[in-house]
Amino acid sequence: MSAERPVEAADAELARWRRIWETDEQYPVPVAGRPGPLGALVAVAKRLLRPLVKAPQNDLWQRQREFNLVLQDRLEAAHRVDRLGEEIQRIQGELADDLRSVRDAIMGHLKTHDGRLDHLEGYKTEGLAQLMRHQDALHSLLDAKLEAYRRELPVLRGQLLSLLAAVESGEPAALPRAIEEQTYLELERRHRGTEAEIGDRIAPYLAALAGRGAVLDLGCGRGEALELLRERGIPARGVDSNAEMVARCREKGLEAERADLFEALAAAAEGSLGGVISFHVVEHLPPAALDRLLRLAWRALVPGGVLVLETPSPLSLVVGARNFWLDPTHLRPVHPEALRLALEMAGFEPVDQVGRQPFGASERLPEIDLDGLSEGERLLADRVNRLRDALDELLYGHQDYGMVGHKPAEAPRPAPRP
Known about the structure:
Elements: H1 7-23, H2 36-54, H3 58-169, H4 174-191, H5 195-202, H6 206-209, E1 215-218, H7 224-231, E2 236-240, H8 243-251, E3 256-258, H9 261-267, E4 273-279, H10 287-300, E5 301-312, H11 317-321, H12 336-345, E6 351-358, H13 375-395, E7 398-406
Parallel strand pairs: 1-2, 1-4, 2-3, 4-5
Antiparallel strand pairs: 5-7, 6-7
C-alpha cells in the first residue's frame, strides 16, 4: 500500500475491487481508439461475441475470479495489517510522548525532591551543629557557674561564720558591723575588679619598693599587694579595718591584722620601714587625717624609703562625676596637685605622679579617619580631632593616678603644720 495515498482512498479502492470480483461485474466494451460509427460497430461486435468467447472459458474465468478474490483477501489483510501497524506506530508515538512527559515530570520531581533532601540535610546538619554549640555553651556556662559557686562557697561559709560569731559575741554592734564589712567586700568584688586584675595594676609600683626593707600596706584589702610582695621576696604586712578582708588575707598565708591604720603607723618604730603603700584609701579620709597619715608615714620610713599612694583621678570627669561615687564610703576626690603639695609639705622629695588604668579605646570618643578626605576636609577633620583629643582627655584620661613620694636619704624634718 502506497504511503503517499490516503488511507480512505485505499479502503475505497479495495472495496470497489471486491464488489467487482464478488458480483462478477461486467466491464463496458472498450472502443479501443476508434471513434465514430466504426468504433460503435466494433463495440457492438465485441458485445455480441463476448458470450461466445466467455462460455468456453467459464472454468478458467471462475478460477481467475476466485484467485482474484483470494488475492483481494490478501490485499485487504495486508491493508489491515498496514493500518494496524500505522495505528501501532501512532500509539507507540503517543506512548513515547507520554513516556517522555512522564519521565520529564518524574525527573523534575526527583530534582525537586533532591533539592529538598539537600536542603533538609543541610538544615539537619546545621541544626545539629547549632544544637551541639548550644549544648557546649550550656555546658561551659554550667561549668563556669559551678566553678564560680565553688569559689564563692568558702567566701559564703566565711561570711556565715562571721555573722554567727557576731551573733554569739553578744555585742550589740557586732552584727551590723559584720554585715557592713561583708557588704563592702561584695562591693569590691563586683566593681573594683578581680584579684588578678588588681594585682596587675599594683605590679608597676614594686620596682620602687625592691631592696628598701619591710613594707606596710595600709588598707591591705584582699591582699593583692601583699601577695605580689611575697612573690618578689619583699617582707610585708598589712592592716585593714575590715575583718572580712583580713580573714581573706590570712587564708592565703599573708601577714595581716585588723587594726586602725593610724595606730599601726604610730606603733611602727621610727625609721623601721622601707616602704608604706596604700591603695584607694586617701579618698576615704578628711584633709586633717590625710595630713596625719603622711607625717606618720614619713616618720616610720627609713631614709630613702618610699610612700606609694593610689586614688581615683578627679582629672577624669567620668571618674569624678560618676565612677567615684559608686563606693558610698568615698568621702571626696583628691586632686593630684593637692596630694603632691601635701606630700612635699610632709617632707617627701621628689614626688612622682603616674597615670594608672587608662580607659579602653572602645570606651572613648571616636576619631575621624583622615584617609580618603580632600585637602579642605582633612584640615577641618584634623581640627575636629584635636578638639576631640582635648575633650576625650578631659572626659576620660586615666581612671586612677599614683603618687610616689621619696624620703630623702639625708632626711630633713618635715615642714611644721600650718
